[in-house]
Fold this sequence. Notes:
- The structure is a homodimer.
- Chain A is mainly α.
- Chain A contains seven helices and three strands, in the order αααβααββαα.
- In chain A, helix 4 (62-69) crosses helix 5 (73-85).
- Chain A is elongated and about 60 Å long.
- The termini of chain A are far apart.
- In chain A, 41% of the residues are buried.
- At the A-B interface, helix 1, helix 2, helix 3, strand 1 and helix 4 of A face helix 1, helix 2, helix 3, strand 1 and helix 4 of B.
- Chain B binds a DNA duplex through residues 28, 32, 44, 46, 61-63, 66, 71-77, 94, 97-101.
Amino acid sequence: MASETATTALAHSALATDIDFLAVKAFTTGTRIANRSLESHGLRVRSYSVLAITCGEVPVTQRDLAEFLALDPSQIVSLVDELESAGLVKREVDPADRRSRVVRATKRGRDRFAAARGAIAEAERESLATLDGAERAELLRLLRKLVFGPEDAPSAGT
Amino acid sequence: MASETATTALAHSALATDIDFLAVKAFTTGTRIANRSLESHGLRVRSYSVLAITCGEVPVTQRDLAEFLALDPSQIVSLVDELESAGLVKREVDPADRRSRVVRATKRGRDRFAAARGAIAEAERESLATLDGAERAELLRLLRKLVFGPEDAPSAGT
DNA sequence: TATTGTTATACTCTATAACTATA
DNA sequence: TATAGTTATAGAGTATAACAATA
């Protein structure tokens, strides 16, 4: 069977020990699943990410969003445009600095997020099905250290 | 500072415990670094991946490549076109099934791969700098289990 | 002079559908 | 009829550059 040949070839190639390659392979599949799950909520992973952050307690500007999503400010514009025209977030001029726009989720946005969050959790269960609970926890810990750094890593919480 | 606000907001959002989100964030950065490292070798991560596999001992068809890179066969066509016109791989008609093309690295392709592999290793060191050796090993183990499954995972080797 | 948001553009990646040649 | 490879196309993501309003 071709698929057996494929797996064999991959397992014997240099890529089998390339963390970046394996990660991209695993998580592009994860993104695909997540995008399908979000489709019925009118979102994709990127717009979901923006919505999730604006649903938090800390007020954020578009510049803030660009920074930690590691996207160019111009990309944030279209994401916020999209969410705003759907009535999920609104832009507010920052009185302290009238160049800045603080982006906040509306009531409707928070409701949408709550529903979409369930879809994301389900997608994650699917894409991480081969890992047990302890392994997922460890994977989460390693990723947090990668993203937030050794010190800044927020505690895992409850 | 805005960047502190950004990290704080992210750490307090629902995304801080979303494995897929954190993984995508961590490894799109990794891909960016890897692409820059490969630039001087005339490759990108996707063409590097194809080249890496065709440098392995197991002969692979384009269909095989599509399968384990999780790309559409039509995307493989342009990747192989690109590598072939650079003289790094060549297509051979499979005598057993003349529909299939076996893709093999040329001598030049293997040399290029050897050089590029060093660049990839360097990029990986950079993108995983916050993890120590044991953590990288564990991350690799978890990713292999995700990609190859619990049984098919090739042994980590030396 | 520097920064926030915006518009514009080009290139890469992702996702499908249809076609050809072989089986 | 089914499969391997190919061509074509449209939409999403990535990367830059330039501009207006504000600091």
